[in-house]
Every structure is written in structure tokens, then in C-alpha cells.
Amino acid sequence: MSLNDAIAKTTLPVEDLARAKAFYAEKLGLRPTREFAGALFYEGNGTSGFLLFPSGAHASGQHTQMAWFVKDIVASVAKLKSRGIHFEEYDFPGLKTKQGIADLGYEKAAWFRDSEGNLLALGQLA
């Protein structure tokens, strides 16, 4: 057995599953492909999928918990902003965003929170 041959999946805690389902549908345009045991599973082209599960614990939101790599981050950020997504702005040594997007050299990245406080990101490799 080798984990090199296994598919990794992100799991994100949510306090309110109905609120999270509405956020992912209305703001991100995503629909669950499966619903089971009180959880929502999403998968699509280019992704191994992710799971939203009800949890009494609050999301830490202190680090990137999931990211999507896109071909055009500027257009993707603009589209999500038009749907009401607020992108985080950072101004730290080594990390500064402009209009929600940071240029890290090896990639451009932008961060936003879902309805449950999970910190999500978009990335575009250089």
C-alpha cells in the first residue's frame, strides 16, 4: 500500500450545512455531486473533490484550507467579486495584495472566506 497511489480529498468543517450549501451554490456556482450522512461532497472536472461536513467546532480560518488553481486569476477574482465574494487584503513583508491578488513570483494568489469562516484561495501558477 502506498499513499502515492491514493487520491487526497479536502474536508472542511461547517457549522450550518444549509448556509454553506447555499454559499457554495450562489457564490461559487458549485453543486454537490453527492449528499450522504449529513455531509456534502463536491467533485468536478480537474478536482479530486472536497467534502463539507457538519461540525460543532468553528473553522480556524488561519491558513489556506483549500485552493483552486485557475488559468486567469484576474478574471476569476472579478467574477467572484461580482457574486459578492470579498477577497482578503494583506500587507505583510513578503505578502502584499493589490485588489485582492498577491504576486508571489512562482504564482499569483487570492484568498476569501466561505460562509463558515474557512479560508479558501485561488491560485495561478507563473
How would you describe this structure in keywords?
4-stranded mixed β-sheet; 2,3-Dihydroxybiphenyl 1,2-Dioxygenase, domain 1; alpha+beta; 2 helices; 10 strands; 6-stranded mixed β-sheet; 126 residues; single chain; globular
Sequence-ordered SSE layout with sheet pairings:
Layout: E1 10-14, H1 17-26, E2 34-36, E3 39-42, E4 50-54, E5 66-69, H2 73-82, E6 91-92, E7 95-98, E8 101-103, E9 107-113, E10 119-125
Parallel strand pairs: 1-4, 5-10
Antiparallel strand pairs: 2-3, 3-4, 6-7, 7-8, 8-9, 9-10
Please identify the top-level CATH class.
Alpha Beta
Largest sheet: 6 strands, mixed
Mean pLDDT value: 92
Distance between the termini: 34 Å
The number of domains: 1
| Biggest sheet: strand arrangement | 5-10-9-8-7-6
Strand element count: 10
Spans where pLDDT lies below 50 across 5 or more residues: none
Class by alpha and beta content: alpha+beta
Number of helices: 2
Rg computed from alpha carbons, rounded to a whole number of angstroms = 15 Å
How much of the sequence is in beta strands? 25-35%
String of helices and strands: EHEEEEHEEEEE
CATH architecture: Roll
The name CATH uses for the topology is 2,3-Dihydroxybiphenyl 1,2-Dioxygenase, domain 1
Shape: globular
Helix content: 10-25%
Q: Mind telling me the CATH superfamily name? A: 2,3-Dihydroxybiphenyl 1,2-Dioxygenase, domain 1
